[in-house]
Amino acid sequence: MRLEKCYFCSSTVYPGHGIQFVRNDNKVFKFCRAKCHKAFKKRRNPRKVRWTKAFRKFSGKELAIDSTFEFERNRNVPVKYNRELWNKSVEAMKRVQEIKKKRQHQHIKNRLKANKALIKEADYEEVQQNIHLIEEPKVKNLAKIKRSAQVIQEIDMDTD
Does this model's pTM top 0.70? Predict the structure, then answer.
């Protein structure tokens, strides 16, 4: 079973699904759904359309350059079947997936780290602007404490 990639959004196109467009020069374009086909016909750039994989890579939201991508490339070299080679390659594929997943998580953490600092700075500025809202309850509590202390002193004086 051959899984193709959509020319526009880079998602997988399963056999019997999607649309195939053949240009006059025999170039074949495969699309996963009509949405991608229409966008292609409207000459939209996939790097500027926000829902495509190309946009996510172009804007730095996903890993674009990594050595693990080299393992996913198609290699059309026939190899004689060997059970040991097959088992090793399956283990290697699993290990590559683990490494890829870790690197993607680290990429996301690094991307969000800058945003956390900006959010913290914005929160600090907001607190500085509205500090009067925070300080007033302390003043009111101090006033209540002073009043209660005065009442206690008056009661002590009356009892003496």
Answer: no
